[in-house]
Design goal:
By secondary structure, the protein is mostly helical. It has one domain: Up-down Bundle (Glycerol uptake facilitator protein). Helix 2 crosses helix 13, helix 4 packs antiparallel against helix 11 and helix 12 runs antiparallel to helix 13. The longest helix is centred in the last third of the chain and has 30 residues. The radius of gyration is 19 Å and the shape is globular. This is Formate transporter FocA. It is a multi-pass membrane protein. Its main location: membrane.
Amino acid sequence: MTQDEIKALKPDALAPAETTEKAETLGQTKAAMPFAKCFVSAMLAGAFIAFGAMYFCVFLGDPTMPFAVQRLVGGICFCLGLVLVLCCGAELFTGNTLLICAKAAGKICWADTLKNWTVVWVGNLIGALAAVFLVFMAGVAGMNGGAVGEAMVSVAAGKVSPDWVTLFFKGIMCNILVCLAVWIGFSARTVADKVLGILLPISAFVAAGFEHCVANMFFLPMGCLLNALGVGAVDAVTFGGIFYNLSAATLGNIVGGVLVGLAYWFIYRRSKAAGK
């Protein structure tokens, strides 16, 4: 049995240095993915995150629950999205900010990095909008006497009310936690490891109300659509509000992901790369 085969059989997680090396390799692979495959995979990720967002809203459809219960259990419900992304395989913009590891190692260039981020961001948006259509047509918003729809509009309205700078820093905090969850996923060897490792970081960012641009690609259009049909407060969500939020959340998510990726690359891989 070879050393690689022995390593594959080990049940323990990858060490931090091994995880960082894996992040570099994965970044190189993602950057080289053909456009069509990358785009369709990104659409899947957008839909997967939207399913988690839908699950979150269904749970919030019971307005009698205490705040802490809503935050905790709602956050766990939302984890569905990243579980599907990491376990089933899909290209998620927030997680792909970790391509910065491959860029720092000189394995890809800025053009490769920015191209991947752009294609994946747009693919995530199309996938999330497709999920909006499916969820709307399935009548999910009408559950619990329409309370789920009210929750969807309320969540969307809450995402356009803070000032832009606050949304930007909420985006940074969000993707620090998301990328740490993805990092745990990189280190995991089993599906159970991935799922358990995702739960705390993702539920934490949801409970704290941080901003995830891909989740907001579902929350905001769904809230806008329902609001236009008379659900919730008048003009709670507009197309301008969608752009306002996504611009801040996207930039914040990039900063958060880059901070995580560069920190671990600096600790575990910089000296090795410099010695080449």
